[in-house]
Amino acid sequence: MIDISFAEHTASGTNAKAKSSPDSWVALVAEEGKLSPAAVALDKQTGGAVVAAVASGKFKGKKGQALTLVAPHGLPVARLVLLGIGKEKEFDALAAQSAGGKLAAHLDGAAAKKAKVIVETLGETKHPVAEIAAHLAYGAALRGYRFDKYHTTRKPDELPTLEAIEFALKDAKAAAKHYSALEKIVAAVYTTRDLVSEPANIIYPQTFADKCKELTKLGVEVEVLGVKEMTKLGMGSLLGVGQGSAKESKLVVMQWRGGTGKAEAPLAFVGKGVTFDTGGISIKPANGMEEMKWDMGGAGAVFGLMKALAGRKAKVNVVGVAGMVENMPDGNAQRPGDVVTSMSGQTIEVLNTDAEGRLVLADALWYAQERFKPRLVIDLATLTGAIIVALGTSRAGLFSNNDALAEQLAEAGKKSGEDVWRLPLGDVYDKQIDSQIADMQNIGADREAGSITAAQFLQRFIKNKETPWAHLDIAGVAWTKKDLDTAPKGAMEFGVRLLNQLVADFYE
Ligand code: BES
Ligand code: ZN
Ligand code: ZN
After folding, report:
1. Distance (Å, rounded) from C-alpha 291 to C-alpha 279?
2. What local confidence, expressed as pLDDT, does residue 197 receive?
3. Which residues are catalytic, by number?
4. Ligand 1 site residues, Cβ closer than 6 angstroms
């Protein structure tokens, strides 16, 4: 993890006392090459090198652009980096996160170890500089995530170099204070990404539940139900998915009671936790099957959200329910055509054992509502390949029975950078999952509208039509195949930042 710190910076230029001696200084440049006061001072110290660099190349201070001057004459550092912030008026929290992330990647690419970033206004900002500094740091920390525990033979020059970034600004105290809340989210994001990155021989229902138990330290009450308890509750839908696996299925229940009224109905978050999805007897093709280790991304996000909320002591009552199973083909596995009875009493004809996420959520959703009578329910699941066809990898699919909740999620998405896009629900789609021999079947009559019929299936497990419910299909956003500004390629934590924002803005 990159060590983030904030230091007082009073004089313009480079006189700020650094906690440690950095090998890199970073100064801000806005669009059209407008230099920050520090960049101006550094230009003087280097005999005009900064202005010359901006004049001679492509770097013009656009958002997220970065330019390195190596061994600049007159400065005691190995490199001077100019960081573009675009139009300063538009440089808001989200833009600062992206720029911070790009900066971290740039510094690491340039083999920097310790950097000092001088954060100041060029005179046109609408946003408090301390907040901008905190969000630059947040973005750098998010991008600095690594999952390299299984590499044992890397040579030193293949290892990441960046260890620390110090942000120097006038109001360092305010920035540090602002960052202290963001730091809790960083910690939650990191553990979620760890869980999602881990292969399925390491993270399976029991070991995932063990991880969840660690939240007890933060004041979260954690219960783990096994097959015996779930059988008693009649969770035939969830249990059917796990019956071909050597790993015992689990239901993890996490409660955070931070609300002022202890009796206040909680918000419920429910996650699909398929620790590996082979497809079961309706087995998936070999090519790319390894990706199905991250089919527990929904449960991972619920875990991360609980960690973030408890970490920052959110003033709200929340319950997180994670349905954990492994979907395997086996002599004991369920067959296409099997009929199972869910906890709700509704029967399901399992026409395709690869449409298992909805079977897990059916019982997890019902349990959450029956036990906790929540004021709203939001589920997260890597549910359908069809949502990737529809929306690609930049937005999650949103389905909801409640316009106000859908609006809140869209707003929280824009603010947190974890965007959602709403798709419809309706009777025409619902009909497609009527079964000939049971109350419903687990796939649509044909391949049409696959993400919507999946959502319709889930809606049949919302006990009371009036309960605000939203379903987030995160199949396209739980993993990234390329580096993003605030996430290196690999596991994501889609939902943690979105739902933390939702809770903070509308429910605390
Ligand atoms: N876990 C998959 C969905 C998925 C696909 C997630 C790609 C991430 C990337 C889910 O369990 C599944 O297999 N869904 C099927 C449903 C179909 C059988 C109706 C699908 O999308 O093909
Ligand atoms: Zn599947
Ligand atoms: Zn799945």
Report:
1. 12
2. 98
3. 284, 358
4. 277, 295, 352, 354-357, 382-386, 443, 450, 475
* pLDDT tens track for 144-173: 999 999 999 998 888 999 999 999 999 999
Nearest residue to 100 (alpha-carbon basis) of 117, 121, 88: 117
Q: DSSP letter for 484, please.
A: B
C-alpha 412 to ligand 1 mean position (Å):
26
What percent of the residues of the chain are helix, what percent strand, and what percent coil, each to the nearest 5? 40, 20, 40
What is the DSSP code string of 358-424?
A: HHHHHHHHHHHHHHH--SEEEEEE---THHHHHHTTS-EEEEES-HHHHHHHHHHHHHHT--EEE--
Q: Please report the pLDDT score of residue 13 as a whole number.
A: 43
* CB crowding 38-55: b at 16 or more within 10 Å, else e: bbbbbbebbeebbeebbe
Query: What tens digit of pLDDT does each residue of 265-316 get?
Result: 999 999 999 999 999 999 999 999 999 999 999 999 999 999 999 999 999 9
- Closest-CA residue, ligand 1 atom 13, reads 354
Domain limits of the chain?
3-175, 187-397+463-506
Nearest CA to ligand 1 atom 8: 475
Cα of 409 to ligand 3 centre, how many Å?
A: 24
The CATH code of the domain at 187-397+463-506 is: 3.40.630.10
For tokens 């690869």, the residue is: 354
Q: Which among 282, 293, 353, 384 is the best mutation to test ligand 1's pocket, defined by most ligand atoms within 8 Å of the CB?
A: 384
Please identify, by atom number, the ligand 1 atom nearest to the C-alpha of residue 447. 19
Q: Which atom of ligand 1 is closest in space to residue 279's alpha carbon?
A: 13
CB 408 within 8 A of CB 382: no
- Ligand in nearest proximity to the CA of 386: 1
- Say yes or no: domain 3-175 is CATH 3.40.220.10: yes
64: pLDDT confidence band, cut at 50, 70 and 90?
confident
pLDDT tens-digit series, residues 400-411: 999 999 999 999
Q: Ligand 1 mean position to 21 CA, how many Å?
A: 51
Distance from residue 294's CA to the centre of ligand 3 (Å) = 9
Classify 267 as helix, strand or coil: strand
- Residue with CA at minimum distance from ligand 1 atom 17: 355
Span 433-470, pLDDT tens digits:
999 999 999 999 999 999 999 999 999 999 999 999 99
In the predicted model, what is the mean pLDDT of the chain? 96
CA distance linking residue 402 with residue 410, whole number of Å: 12
Which residue puts its alpha carbon closest to atom 3 of ligand 1? 384
pLDDT in tens, 115-135: 999 999 998 888 999 999 999
> Ligand 2 mean position to 102 CA, how many Å?
35
